[in-house]
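Trying the structure run again after the queue cleared.
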Amino acid sequence: MSESIEFSNFFKLLDGIKEGDETNNDLINKIISEYKDPDQPKSFLDELGKRFIHIGFTELYEYSENKDLKYISNINKDKWEELAEKNDLALPQYLANAMITFVREQKMSKEMATKWQVREREINKHVRPMAQYITEGIIDFLE
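Done. Tokens:
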């Protein structure tokens, strides 16, 4: 990717929930909600990543049939396998596909290219790697 981006602070908050600190639960949900349409992103990559975090967690809640991050982070392997069968895909593929499909269906590349004054193909070349990056962050939180 052409610029350095990272969402480590967000994922550190998530790790706190996994470790039992639920004091930031409301903050995390607020951040996820704000990332639907990020306010003042630093770059198109920052915007893409934030939108993908929103999509990823929205899809995680749907996939797991639960919005409690503490609960989701403690789902066992058998339950994940059951959910994969029910959803016809393992979670990583499900999340990444949802992100990529969203970009395509919403014509997000064109919108972002205009907004950030870059070529649409520049946005498109980062869609799959960003989807993978955000998906890996979500899966790391769950492991």
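The chain has a mean pLDDT of 92. Worth checking whether this holds up in the mutant runs.
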